[in-house]
Amino acid sequence: MKTRLFIYVCILFSLLSCSSDEREQLETALVFSGNNRPELEKVLAYYKGDSLKLKAAIYLIENMPLHYTYKGRDLDSLHVALKQYADSGIYDKHLEYLKHFPYKNLFKEYDAKVITSEYLIENIEYSFKVWRETPWEKYVSFDNFCEFILPYRIKDEPLTHWKKDFYHRFKPVLDSLYQGTDVIEATSSLSNYTISLHWKYQNELTGPHLSAQHLLELQLGDCASIADFGCYMMRSVGIPVAIDTYLWSPVAHVAHVWNAVLDTTGYAIPFNWGAPQLQRTKRFNDRAGKVYRHTYALQEERLEAVLQGKRIKMALADICLKDVSSSYFPSNKITVDCELIKDGKDKHSVWVAIFNKRNWFPIGEGSYKDGQATFNDMEEGLIYMPLYAKDGKLKEAGFPFKIDKESGCLLYYRPKADSCQITVTRKWPLRGGMRTYIQRMAYGRFEGANRKDFSDAKVLLQLKNYPRKMFNEVKIKDSSKYRYIRYISADWFPGDIAEVAWYADTLGQMKLQGKLMSTLPYGNTKKTLAENAMDNDPLTFFSSSERPGWVGLDLDTPKQIGSIRYTPRNDDNFVRLGDKYELFYFSSDGWKSLGVKIAEEPKLVYDNVPSHALYWLRDLTRGNE
């Protein structure tokens, strides 16, 4: 039913977009509003004598049928749980069902059917007020004003008077922090100010977007909530801000959302909430493939692709997502062979995808002609797969490929007839942030001392490089006894370590116990506490706020150290002893197995492997793909 309603709305808008008469476009939205039509007509009548504000009102009303708020009793329970979490870091057990409750099955209350003329007029008045108050007004065109300042909502949050409330809350703050004319400096000032709000990150409880007032009250949420709050705050004082996103990162294995401020140059500068200093020249470092902007208006050029994607229930099927990839990566146009489409048809809906756990995840749509798919503005250096729709499901249209960073040419992963031997030490390449965390152990050392301040410390084990495997064990030759023991990072690194344990014997059977000691944890949060380094969980970790940082034990009495075991901060993608693994490669018939092995050492060796293919190693014992 909800999919049919969405398609109905999109068909209305397709008719709307084909019309050259603005009155017909507006009429389409007014018809959708039903009994609430008089309220919308009051707004149009109110601005009859102001052509620019009337144009703004028409912009909001024409796109209004796309927007709604979820309604349901479970949302009241969600707000209770969030309030409990904000106050104490926990919530009642009977509310745990809210972690994954299907809120998208709740009733949708469409704005066009309930919004009041007073509400809409207040939003328009405050939007124009803040636009005209700013010294960068002349650099913000009316079209950009409509996209970056005017909208009364962001996504599916409850309708509130946030623009008025936040203006009176944050305009005095901005005035006290910055009096200049640079929109980037103004954004930096407010972003830096928000650090004082002590936002708590949580992504356990899922639900619709929260209202601006609720976010200000709780100061709690994930990156989407943080970006929402930043957008509310900035727009309320006339700073033109949008929300950008990538749907899935093939490196970070998550979706991510952040803000972008419209500079006086016409370019949008991306920034994360709480960034102390925005930089016009700072490079966007996340690996994303494609980047989109959440907008209020329908993106007409994506209408057909969104209708196809909605039937397959893909995240890309959001008609308000605007492709802004060319603002983040060099613009390009690539044509990909689709040799696995063998039905002889001339027309197909095609998508480009990246790997997500066990499936290919669509991140962009393209066009199909003569056995090839064409895609625009894709990030170089990542592995992609072309997909097409068959019998209501997504199928591989060709072989995986990569856009070479140096030449811009396509490199296909087509298996060759010749075979080779490969050695695998990880399920996934070590790169990005995780490589940085592991590298923090380089030149770290394990010390023993008999003074609490370690002024008489002796080095028991000196690391020369960062660990190349997950679990490490070293026998200690020093026969002296020590009361205080610790792991300490090199002077230029914070202390990051997942697990550390000291033993009285060289076989690692007599584990030493003592009182925990450490430098302050980073951010003073549960995720970085010193206890995490000794909880027998290799996926939790200690991270220090100081450089160097350390964690150790007071053994109460001096004891000899026979051996040390340690685990670097990690993503659990190293080959683990005793785990069962299966290696696959992608062929013209899909993924083919190269056999199952149990790891007898921290690596796996496979013979007779087809060369030049894309390989996929699965741990059948534990973990995520």
Keyphrases for this structure?
625 residues, five-stranded antiparallel β-sheet, globular, alpha+beta
Short description:
The chain is an alpha+beta fold and 625 residues long.
Description:
The protein is an alpha+beta fold and 625 residues long. It is built from 14 helices and 32 strands. A hairpin with a 6-residue loop joins strand 16 (401-403) and strand 17 (410-412).
Distance from N terminus to C terminus (CA atoms, Å) equals 34 Å
**Class computed from helices, strands and strand pairing:** alpha+beta
Strand content: 25-35%
Count of helix runs: 14
Q: Main beta sheet: strand number and arrangement?
A: 8 strands, antiparallel
Q: Write down the overall geometry.
A: globular
Oligomeric nature of the chains: single chain
* Residue-averaged pLDDT: 91
Poorly predicted parts: none
C-alpha Rg, in Å?
28 Å
The tally of strands reads: 32
Helix content: 25-40%
Please give the structural blueprint.
Blueprint: H1 2-18, H2 22-33, H3 37-46, H4 51-63, E1 68-71, H5 73-88, E2 107-110, H6 111-114, H7 117-133, H8 142-148, H9 162-177, H10 183-193, E3 200-201, H11 212-218, E4 220-221, H12 223-236, E5 241-246, E6 256-262, E7 268-271, E8 292-294, H13 303-312, E9 321-323, E10 333-337, E11 350-356, E12 359-369, E13 372-376, E14 383-390, E15 393-396, E16 401-403, E17 410-412, E18 419-424, H14 432-439, E19 445-449, E20 458-462, E21 472-475, E22 481-488, E23 496-497, E24 499-503, E25 515-518, E26 542-543, E27 550-560, E28 563-567, E29 580-587, E30 590-598, E31 604-610, E32 615-619
Parallel strand pairs: 3-4
Antiparallel strand pairs: 1-2, 5-6, 5-8, 6-7, 8-9, 10-13, 11-12, 11-14, 12-13, 14-15, 14-16, 16-17, 18-31, 19-20, 19-22, 21-28, 22-27, 23-26, 24-28, 25-27, 29-30, 29-32
